[in-house]
Amino acid sequence: MSVLYAYVRLPDFPLERCGYSTEEHLALWEVRHQISKVTVVCDALRAYGIQPGMSTGEARALCHDVILVPRQVDDEREDRRELTRTLHRWGDRVRQDGDEGWILEVGGLMALYGGPEGIADHLRAQLSSLGHRVQVALAEHPMAARILAVTGEPAWSERAAADRLAPLPLEALPAPEHWIDQLIAVGCRTLGDLAALDPASVAGRHGPAGRWWHQVVRGAPGEPWTATEDVQEHPGVAYTFDDEVHDASVLLARLQAMIEACSEGWAHEEAAPEALRLELRLANGEILTKVVRRHQPSRSPGAWMQLWRAALSDGRLPAPVLRVHLWPVGLQRVQSEQLRCGERRKVHEEVDQLVERLRLALGQQTCVQVQAKEAWMPEQRWSEEPGSQGRAPRRDPVQAQEGWRARHAPSAPSRLRRRPRPVQVRLEDGRPVAIRGPRSWAPVQPQEGPIHLRHGWWTPGGGEERCYHRVGSHRGDLSLYERQGLWFHQGWFD
Questions:
Q1: Cis peptide, bond prior to residue 450, ω within 30 of zero
Q2: pTM surpassing 0.70?
């Protein structure tokens, strides 16, 4: 057996981390809309009728000896990360699944622990020693292992996964409720009934998701994981809504802002995720997790939002949403590429078609021709050509851009350092003529400057003034600036 997955479930993890026994009448509460509401309940309190979503007053009225403890969501999340690090001792292929589950690929540990039963016993013993109630199941597919662990089935059996799943009720499948209702309407009651359906019929009626679930219940093995080198563990971003959110469009609008906030950090790390994981905390106390993946890492907010719109296209939420948390998964270093304006070979749309499409979408007055002019402020170094509104360009804008570049050297560098580097400069008449290199001084030729820019001149302290110079060297033109007597190398000109 080359591929084998273990699913570890800790159903009482939020309660056990507080130091209480699961036999005590313990409940965790959070403040929502200025009301203290119960969010996690032990099994003993459910017998009294206490459910997540009740107020603490209602819980005390049903059970007078209830122990109410405030829930520390951030500390709870940190404890899960620490437990994930503990499970990494079993290998580098460990993934957290929701708030109470972890998936481990253990196919290479068979000989070390004496088979699947030994792996399950060692996992159970290790986590039980930490004070947790553990449910473990092993199967050839991670989702099959999860279903078996959640339903309390034995950790391992020599029978095939399809035979172990067949007698389980259809509700054991963690699939959307409307999809389960459709299967019940056609007569399916167990996972065996679902496995007996024709694969083509399931795929035609329920799409790729239905075909995937059908393969799981039929015992298809999971694909081996490939170890990926994460740049660092990213905390993601979270947001708590002021009111309960019932509409998926509101959720998508907030999600777009969160992805844009994350993308700034990815660009700073020169990394991109291969997947995004979204955690929705619902008003009924449940936590819904969704994951979208791309065929290759990307840090484009638009590309990720396209996937999320497709994932939430039905607009249905199982319950009102109170809080969202977004994590990047599998951050990997990527080679960034910056396209120049003149590289038309990388543009899949002709300029005339692009201009016409912009006119139709934005209006006839939006597309104009501009001409360069001399001015010391960058925003005033161009002007609109008279009578150019609403007319098609008279010449190729790429050729115009290249011609303008040949006639006018840009005053701003096209490539910037992440952080300006201090340099030693030799001056003549206030202009740099040489730069200190690693071994000796290198001569430079002044091209442009000095250009004086002052920031914060309106403040009582007078702000800060910088003096910019463009100089030529054997490696091309450089951008230098002087600040308070110190010189810095800012970037390069193309």
A1: yes
A2: no
